[in-house]
Amino acid sequence: MTSIEPPIRRYASAGGIVVDAQKDRVLVLLRPGRLTAEGLPEVRLPKGHIEPGEDRATAALREVQEEAGLWGLDVVADLGHQTVEFDSQGRHTLRDESAFLMVWPKGAPSGPPESQFRPLWLTWEEAQRHLSFKAEREWLRRAERAWRELQG
Predict the structure, then answer these.
(1) What is the pLDDT of residues 65-104, one digit of tens each?
(2) DSSP helix/strand/coil, 59
(3) In terms of Cα–Cα distance, which of 117, 112, 109 is closest to 33?
(4) 50 burial class (0-12, 13-18, 19+ CB within 10 angstroms)?
(5) Which of 29, 73, 103, 122 could bond to 127 as cystine, CB 3.0-4.6 Å?
(6) Interacting residues of 144 by C-beta distance below 8 A, sequence separation 6+
(7) How far apart are CA 150 and CA 148, in angstroms?
(8) How far apart are CA 131 and CA 45, in angstroms?
(9) pLDDT (0 to 100) of residue 87
(10) Is 127 exposed, middle or buried (0-12, 13-18, 19+ CB in 10 A)?
(11) In this predicted structure, what is the pLDDT of residue 60?
């Protein structure tokens, strides 16, 4: 008897870890319509697919703007790449993720977030506790290190 392997999906994504420098808080997105295995609403960082012709930083800025409704962000550090592997909806996924540390300047414009998300500003520690996915907690660790280094 042979086993059937699930189809493999591969794609690249980019996102941002956004800091409100005035309050030293970080942005997370509550997604009440999607529950974790524990039955809790998903809490995640803004990110999404890199569109054809986009570079990683442009895609990350676009995703934060679309999902969180934040504009005027400054990209202050490239946090690198990581490959995330998971199974979902009968498919095996390999996602090449890129992330950038961004600052939301005082007075920068904001608009409505995507309807599926509710933006929350949390302390670094609160965000680390509430993020639903291990890979995103790793991005947050990298971002906090980079932020502290930039602060001197």
Answers:
(1) 999 999 999 999 999 999 988 777 778 878 899 999 999 9
(2) helix
(3) 117
(4) buried
(5) 122
(6) 26, 124
(7) 5
(8) 8
(9) 79
(10) buried
(11) 98
Residue 13: other Cβ atoms inside 10 A: 18
- The CATH number of 8-151 is 3.90.79.10
Tokens 């199974």 — which residue?
87
Q: Which two tokens stand for residue 118?
A: 């509710």
Residues in contact with 37: Cβ distance below 8 Å, sequence separation at least 6, in sequence order: none
What count of residues does the chain have? Answer: 152
pTM of the model: 0.90
CA torsion through residues 20, 136, 75, 150, sign: positive
- Domain boundaries defined on the chain: 8-151
25, 121 Cβ separation under 8 angstroms:
yes
